[in-house]
Write a structure and sequence with these properties.
With 83 residues, this protein is mainly alpha-helical. It has one domain. It contains 4 helices and 2 strands, in the order H-E-H-H-E-H.
């Protein structure tokens, strides 16, 4: 049980809402810089928090986003490959 818990906790955690981030994404640097507060520029931010911040600033982020969903199975498989 401890190994499973450690693997689960190794998933990325959003530094704004502190939830597990099962969907990775990327946006162009200029969109990220305008959207994310400077103190969180190098942190993991989940898609939900990113969308909320961008929408609050009326930044059109939806055209240039790339999504990378990661299932728990794939995550665990990748963790085990690194051991």
């Amino acid at each position: 049980m401890g190994d499973f818990l450690n693997m689960f906790l190794s998933r990325e955690i959003c530094k704004l809402c502190f939830r597990v981030n099962p969907v990775g994404f990327s946006v162009p640097d200029e969109i990220w810089k305008y959207t994310i507060p400077s103190e969180h520029q190098s942190d993991v931010v989940c898609l939900q928090c990113f969308a909320r911040l961008a929408d609050e600033k009326l930044i059109p982020w939806d055209r240039d986003i790339r999504l990378y969903p990661v299932s728990m199975y794939t995550h665990l498989d990748n963790v085990n490959d690194k051991k």
